[in-house]
TrEMBL record:
Protein's recorded name: NACHT N-terminal Helical domain-containing protein
Keywords: Repeat
Pfam family, one: Pentapeptide
Domain NACHT N-terminal Helical: 20-224
Origin species: Microcystis aeruginosa 11-30S32
InterPro entries to which the protein is assigned, alphabetical: 5peptide_repeat, NNH3, P-loop_NTPase
Length: 1038
């Protein structure tokens, strides 16, 4: 085929054995010398490795066809040599000593078998050249038939990498011999660059991904790769169970299937189903989500898969995912094109988005941002996979944010939860492979010991106590425990506070930097530990006000300047400019934060290596600010010239807590920090915060005095955040003091109005953070009609006299709460926890208490008429004098309950447990006690007339003087029961067991005792007039 403008016809370089060759000896020896210096092959066929001057030396022409043929042959040989070099340890001898003549012959023969046209597509995608596949197969045959690599899978993997290496070899050849291939340049204007950039980019990026897990963690000499333990997880399968529960939003029952995390995801990748291309990975803070994502990305990169790892706190996402990924890729600088806009339509891509909970956008709630992101991911995956599966996505995130969006992911196995190193109770799991029997803590400590040069065969005995089980089971906390354990400054035999561990680590960082031989010593000379921690807290606060993890030097400067720390910060800033290996900043970045590589405007950003470090430091800053506010207010009381009043305190508070809302993770650290303070001091803070709550409800949050609030909407948002934080920290104080500060609410509805504003509109059934902050709260006489308190934490709150009529308290925690005299009529208290609650004289008429826990609750004189107490736990509860008429108590547990003089007329107690209950003088007329357990119960003087006690267990019960007129006791068991003086007139005791029962003086007139067991029963002075008695037992009457 002739050459044309459309392309170049490629001919095989003429074989010098088949033609006369004019050899220029000087040129040839020169070329051979170059080859030897470069360690190239020393056989004749190796001459091709030395470039196009070989054509001159051998008397060959430099036509475009010859040049192109030589270029391809050279590049393929160079690629194969590179592959062999990269796996030299698998070969029986050095690469340079391998005989390659037949392999070169294979290449030239391949060129001879087909004529190739090189057009623009070749330079864009040289790996698509038709000759690549047959040469790849020939390379594999050469490897295996010559026993160069005995493992066929390894040989296959090696040959599979040939196309990528071929592209690199082409670029290198062209780059090194650009002038010599000028004739090709004249024919084709854009050779290789794009293909080279693309392949080089992926190669470099894959290498970078693998390097990430080989980077040292914190200040250690070892890497994540050395101590990483393969994680387990589970997915849920819904179990179909028959149920009578009509609650339409009660969560269904699920079976948890235990899996090996990596294997599960690899199976998903291999399946490559276009309609199942998204996986969500969830777990709590420190559960190993990010570590797994990094390790999994590195493993896929090692397998030469195209994988893109994106920490979501570094993704500038608004509404367009393609643009956001493009910006991210451009900033990283590895890949020359956006993988979501590939020029290669055959690209198969896995994207790992790490940290769904870290998406944020100023002026929008996190839930909205996350929802938009998820919708965009789903849309893009659908578009990419229209014809075939080209894109798969793995998203990781903390459990709360993933669970809030699980309705978008309903395919089987789509949401996977990471399991801790140790699962104490595996009853709720389906674990066919017995994965949970392995305590992975032992494996981690073995690897940690090897990395540290210490002999840890397993988890140290000092750390194996039950109080540390939850901590050592979590990857991050387990590591922090290890660091603290080696310092020997924390007593782990006590109840361990996590903040103690973080405090100890902060101390370790400071001391490490202050050592005289430390390279960080000069940078912190003269800086006190308190100042050191203070600046870190301010950095954390700056991050929290940003997106939770990252901040800039300018933002830190602003925070420090506003809080009088400008000079202190300067010492730290100087360290940013000093020798990176000799500064305190480098010491800190090794442990707490690092340069993220992102730009915010024109500034570099710095990020916390683990979000929980920032949360701990932010919590400390908030508690410190509470202390400062309290002190200033107290000083103002003693010195009127001081002029710091509650309004100024609220301005300070809004500045601190307005920009970002507190979440449950930060709150946990705040509570822990409060627990480390003096209880007396916390009690004073509780009063101060209570005073501030009273003031803001009367006067409002003074947002007009704040700086940097661009509009009213932003003021409202920050006011809500600040007020919620005030309530949360006030609650944290209450949890420590376990006392209630008496708040003077401006009006009965004031708290309800405030709570409604803080809550906003519920978007799902998940717990709302603000409702977790209501324990130890004084809510006496508050008006909370119809209030949404679903899953609220009202533990030990004072709700005496409160109006909660028709309120939703489903699954609320009211343990130890005071609800005396409250109106909770018609309210929903399903599965609520009222353990030990005070409900004396409380109005609960028609309330739904199904499945509620009322153990040891005080319900004296309460009104529970028509209430639903099905399957409720009332063990040990005091219901003396209560009205429970017509109530539903089916299968309720009233073991040992006090029901003296209780009104239970027509109540449904079928299958209820009333063992050892005190029902003395209770009214159970017409009640349904079918199959109820009343063994040992005290029913003396009780009215049980016309009640249904069919198949009930009354063994050993006290029924003296009880009224059982016309009661149905068919097949009931009254063995050893005392019925002395009881009224059983007209009662049906057919088939009942009265063995050993005491019926002395009982009235059995017209009762039916047919087929009853009356062995050893005492009927002394009993009235048996008209009694139906079985003839076989009449002789046993006394």
């Amino acid at each position: 085929m002739s050459e044309s403008a459309a392309g170049i016809s490629v001919s095989k370089p003429q074989n010098i054995w088949k033609r006369q060759v004019k050899v220029n000896l000087r040129s040839l020896f020169s070329t051979l010398g170059k080859a030897a210096l470069n360690g190239a092959f020393l056989q004749w066929d190796d001459l091709a490795e030395n470039g196009v001057e070989v054509l001159d030396a051998l008397g060959l022409s430099r036509t475009p066809g010859e040049l192109a043929g030589l270029l391809i042959s050279q590049s393929l040989m160079k690629a194969m040599k590179g592959l062999l070099k990269s796996n030299a340890d698998l070969l029986p001898q050095e690469v340079e000593k391998l005989a390659l003549k037949e392999l070169y012959t294979e290449i030239t023969d391949s060129l001879q078998e087909q004529e190739l046209i090189l057009d623009r597509d070749f330079f864009e995608h040289p790996e698509r050249l038709p000759i690549v596949a047959p040469i790849q197969a020939a390379f594999l045959r050469w490897l295996t038939t010559n026993n160069l690599i005995t493992n066929s899978q390894e040989a296959q993997s090696l040959s599979n990498r040939l196309p990528a290496y071929f592209v690199l070899a082409l670029q290198e050849q062209w780059k090194d011999k650009r002038d010599e291939y000028s004739l090709l340049l004249d024919e084709i204007d854009t050779p290789f660059n794009n293909a080279w950039k693309r392949e080089r980019g992926w190669l470099h990026y894959r290498a970078w991904l693998q390097k990430q897990i080989d980077e040292p963690i914190f200040w250690e000499t070892f890497s994540l790769k050395q101590i990483y333990v393969p994680l387990r997880g589970f997915y849920e399968e819904e179990e179909i169970k028959a149920t009578t529960d009509k609650d339409d939003h009660r969560e269904p029952s699920f079976k948890r299937i235990v899996i090996k995390l990596q294997e599960q995801l690899e199976t998903w990748l291999e399946a490559a189903k276009s309609d199942d291309a998204i996986r969500l990975l969830t777990g709590g803070p420190g559960s190993g989500k990010s570590s797994f994502c990094k390790v999994f990305a590195a493993q896929q990169a090692r397998l030469e898969k195209q994988v893109l790892y994106i920490p979501l706190h570094r993704l500038s996402f608004s509404t367009d995912l393609v643009t956001a990924v493009k910006t991210f890729v451009q900033h990283d600088g590895f890949l020359p094109e956006n993988p979501l806009e590939p020029s290669d339509q055959d690209l198969r891509l896995l994207i790992i988005f790490d940290g769904l909970d870290e998406l944020s956008m100023q002026g929008k709630i996190a839930q909205e941002v996350v929802q938009n992101f998820i919708n965009e991911v789903r849309d893009q995956v659908k578009n990419f996979n229209n014809n075939k599966t080209r894109l798969q996505v793995l998203i990781s995130g903390r459990d709360v944010v993933v669970q809030s969006n699980k309705n978008n992911f309903k395919k089987p196995q789509q949401i996977i939860t990471i399991l801790p190193y140790w699962v104490g109770n595996s009853d709720n799991f389906s674990d066919v492979d017995n994965l949970l029997k392995v305590d992975q803590r032992h494996q981690w400590w073995q690897q940690y010991g090897q990395a540290k040069g210490k002999n840890y065969a397993q988890l140290p005995p000092e750390l194996s106590g039950k109080n540390l089980q939850e901590i050592t089971a979590q990857p991050l906390l387990n590591y922090l425990i290890a660091l603290t354990f080696e310092r020997g400054e924390v007593q782990f035999s006590q109840e361990t506070n996590l903040n103690n561990i973080y405090e100890n680590l902060l101390k370790a960082v400071y001391e490490r930097g202050y050592e005289k031989n430390s390279r960080g010593h000069r940078a912190i000379e003269g800086i006190k530990k308190e100042d050191f921690v203070l600046i870190l807290m301010e950095i954390a606060l700056s991050c929290w006000h940003g997106n939770g993890r990252t901040t800039t030097v300018r933002e830190i400067e602003e925070h420090c300047e506003n809080n009088g720390l400008k000079n202190l910060l300067k010492n730290f800033q100087d360290s940013f400019q000093s020798d990176s290996q000799g500064s305190i900043t480098r010491l800190l970045t090794a442990f707490y934060f690092r340069e993220s590589g992102d730009l915010r405007g024109s500034e570099k950003t710095f990020e916390f290596t683990h979000k929980s470090f920032g949360e701990y430091l932010t919590a400390r800053r908030i508690v410190d600010r509470v202390k400062q506010i309290h002190k200033k207010l107290q000083d103002s009381k003693n010195d009127y010239d001081n002029g710091y009043y509650r309004r100024q305190a609220l301005i300070t508070w809004a500045t601190l807590c307005g920009p970002t809302a507190i979440d449950e993770y930060l709150f946990r650290f705040i509570v822990n920090q409060m627990q480390l303070q003096s209880p007396d001091e916390v009690k004073q803070w509780q009063k101060t915060l209570g005073d501030l709550i009273e003031y803001l409800l009367a006067k409002g949050m003074p947002m007009e005095d704040l700086k940097n609030c661009p509009n009213f909407q932003e003021e409202m948002r920050q006011a809500r955040n600040a007020e919620e934080a005030l309530l949360a920290v006030f609650n944290a104080c209450g949890r420590v003091t376990e006392e209630i500060f008496p708040i003077q609410w401006p009006s009965p509805e004031a708290f309800g109005n405030w709570l409604a504003r803080l809550q906003g509109q519920r978007i799902d059934y998940k717990p709302m953070f603000v409702l977790n902050c209501l324990s130890f709260l004084d809510l006496q006489n508050c008006l909370l009609i119809f209030r949404d308190l679903y899953r609220a934490n009202l533990e030990r709150a004072n709700l005496a006299g409160a109006n909660l009529r028709v309120a939703n308290l489903e699954e609320a925690n009211l343990a130890g709460a005071n609800l005396a005299g409250a109106d909770i009529g018609y309210a929903n208290l399903q599965r609520a926890n009222l353990d030990g609650a005070i409900l004396e004289r409380t109005y609960l008429r028609r309330a739904n208490l199904a499945g509620a826990n009322l153990k040891w609750a005080n319900l004296k004189w309460a009104n529970l008429g028509w209430a639903n107490l099905e399957e409720a736990n009332l063990a040990g509860a005091n219901l003396a004098g209560a009205d429970i008429g017509y109530a539903n108590l089916q299968r309720a547990n009233l073991d040992g309950a006090i029901l003296e003089r209780t009104y239970l007329r027509r109540a449904n107690l079928a299958g209820a447990n009333l063992k050892w209950a005190n029902l003395k003088w209770a009214n159970l007329g017409w009640a349904n006690l079918e199959e109820a357990n009343l063994a040992g119960a005290n029913l003396a003087g009780a009215d049980i007339g016309y009640a249904n006690l069919q198949r009930a267990n009354l063994d050993g019960a006290n029924l003296e003087e009880a009224n059982l007129e016309e009661a149905n006791l068919v097949a009931a068991s009254l063995e050893g029961a005392s019925l002395e003086g009881a009224n059983l007139e007209g009662a049906n005791l057919e088939g009942a067991n009265l063995a050993g029962a005491n019926l002395a003086g009982a009235n059995l007139g017209w009762a039916n005792l047919e087929w009853a067991n009356l062995e050893w029963a005492n009927f002394k002075d009993a009235n048996v007039k008209g009694t139906i008695l079985d003839t076989e037992v009449k002789t046993e009457f006394q």
